[in-house]
Design a protein that fits this description.
Order of helices and strands: EHEHEEEHEHEHEEEEHH
Largest sheet: 9 strands, mixed
Number of helices: 7
Strand content: 15-25%
Shape: globular
């Protein structure tokens, strides 16, 4: 099935996806005692993080079998001399070929899905028919291959407190998916994150999960540590709409998640006095 995970920048959406990949590649336990993840390979399309200094260390810190993670960086042009970016309006058949050739793919991660919607002007991400035309073949591919497809998406900055209306682009983005989840900050604990169902046609749409992000060892000399998710042992019952309503009260929809995180980090670093600018 196709699942969309949405949230503001800097809220750890990609880190959650990497945690999912780690559990799949290692056959690790799911949060809150929901059994073990099916073991297999993961295919990743990622445009916002570097593989060498970000994705690979985070996978290692999450306990992944990195040999089972395959990152696709683009498509070879005719003749093979040049490469272009992956395009969901053109290349789903090629993606399916990769999945079938690997043979044991359990999950495909597209981060973010809006980065792979073709050249600017080719597709209107706010037009339902355009978004459905792009995502329905992806959903069909998932069904044929028996793989979960995870699309990472951002949220619009303000407006509706209804979670389904806040995913960036047309409502077709979440309408086409079988499940959509929101990653949000806990108003009572700025370090705590909530992973909440905004929609789920095939499972529990009432309870979610909570987690924090910690530095964990990678097993490498450089970098020795990377951020990784640590899930809480109990589920949470707050809804995605309630989490967005609480966030809107605090930020009024205008503050940048990234800027607020940076401010808190700097305040913590400077609590005991001045630090060098380079540090």
């Amino acid at each position: 099935k196709l699942t969309i995970i949405g949230g503001h920048p800097g809220i750890s959406k990609s880190t959650v996806a990497i945690d999912m990949a780690a559990r799949v590649t290692a056959g690790g336990p799911r949060p809150c005692g929901e059994g073990n993840a099916p073991m297999g390979s993961v295919v990743m399309l990622t445009s916002e993080d570097d593989v060498g200094d970000t994705i690979h260390p985070r996978l290692a810190a999450a306990g992944a079998d990195v040999r089972r993670v395959h990152v696709l960086k683009g498509m070879a042009e005719k003749g093979g001399a040049n490469r272009r970016g992956f395009d969901l309006t053109l290349d789903i058949a090629a993606l399916e070929t990769v999945v079938r050739e690997l043979g044991d793919v359990v999950m495909v991660i597209i981060d973010p899905v809006t980065a792979y919607m073709g050249k600017p002007g080719k597709l209107d991400s706010y037009r339902v028919t355009d978004v459905r035309a792009m995502l329905e073949p992806l959903q069909d591919m998932a069904a044929r291959c028996g793989a979960a497809v995870i699309g990472i998406n951002h949220l619009s900055k303000g407006g509706s407190a209804e979670a389904l209306m806040r995913f960036l682009g047309s409502v077709g983005m979440v309408a086409t998916s079988r499940a959509s989840y929101l990653v949000a900050r806990d108003k009572e604990d700025p370090e705590r994150r909530l992973f909440l169902p905004a929609k789920n046609n095939i499972g529990d749409d009432r309870t979610g999960f909570a987690f924090k992000v910690h530095m964990k060892p990678t097993g490498y000399e450089k970098p020795p540590y990377a951020i990784a998710v640590e899930w809480e042992k109990e589920k949470v019952s707050i809804t995605a709409d309630e989490a967005l309503a609480a966030e809107a009260k605090e930020t009024d929809g205008r503050k940048s998640e990234g800027a607020e995180t940076a401010k808190k980090l700097l305040a913590e670093m400077l609590r005991d006095g001045p630090r060098s600018a380079t540090e």
